[in-house]
Every structure is written in structure tokens, then in C-alpha cells.
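Entry:
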Amino acid sequence: MERIGNLEKWFISKSAAQDAVSGPASGPWDERTSALVEAFQMGALARDVQDHRATNKCSSALADLIAAVRSTRDLPNFVVYRGLLLKSPPEVSTAFRERSLSSWTIFPSIALRLALAQGQGLVTILRYRLSQTDAAFYIDDWEYEVLRPPYVSQVFRIAKGNVNFMGHSCDVVVADLEALEGKDEQ
């Protein structure tokens, strides 16, 4: 694991690199997709996502939203970030699987804030560069939120460091992910 003394400069530079970028407006969405995106954003599909992750059973609303996400390629070559609290850091060369719809952002500082809001655990920021073929559905300019369908990736690099954020110092792990060819979740 690479050790970086202070990741704060890293977060600032990565956020600045995409600061002038405003994501594309997906669409035009049909009425049902617009309603499903809004339901996802407001937490109305949270139980559906949780059940899908736990049992692999997908509600029809969630299946429709995943289908809309799978058919959209909004952000080719963008780097997206996801903040999580984990019990232990992921290891290099291990698979990282997301069994349901997941929310990402184009700014690492937003991912960090979302991870810290989850409670206690090891703050882990997943980083992934979207390819031309990766499905990504840009849904808002508030948290610069990007939806990704279920996927399987491999951790290819880990960095650990410290970030001063909102007056507090916290240890952060950054895990770089790459696609595992032919391993998309269905």
C-alpha cells in the first residue's frame, strides 16, 4: 500500500481538475425514468437497492432504472468517486463487486463527505475512470451524482493518507479500480 502523508492536496488537485466541468444533462428522459431518478434521489428506492444487494431480487422499479442506466454512456473518460466506510481496506488484485445500482460523484471531496456521513469505519474512496463503453447516468448538479449499474472491478492500486476535512483530520484509503473484462453483473 502506497503511503501518502497528506491526501488533502490530492483531493484539492483532483477536484480542481474537474472543477470547470459540469456534467452532461442525461436525456431527454421519459416520464417514468424521470420519476425513477427522483425516487432514487429521495431515498424511495433505498429498500429496493438494499434488498437487491442482499438477495439479488430486483423490484420492477429498480430493474427499470438499472436498464436506463445500462443504456446510457454520459461520462466517457471521466474519473468518478464513491465514498464508503469499510471494516478493512480492500487489497490489490481483489475483485470489488457491486450487486445493485450505485451512486458515484465526479468530485472526490463530495465522496469523502458522503463517506464521513455514514458513521464509523475506515473511510475508503473508490476511484474509477469510465471508458467509452462504461454505463454511467449523470443525474444532477447538486452532488454531481452519477449512477452506475451493477459491476465487478478489480483493485489495482491502494493509497493511504490523511485528510484535514471540515476541521477534522481523518485517515483515508483511496482504492483505484479497473474493469474486469467480461465480468459485468447481470
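Helices lie at 8-17, 31-41, 46-55, 60-70, 108-116.
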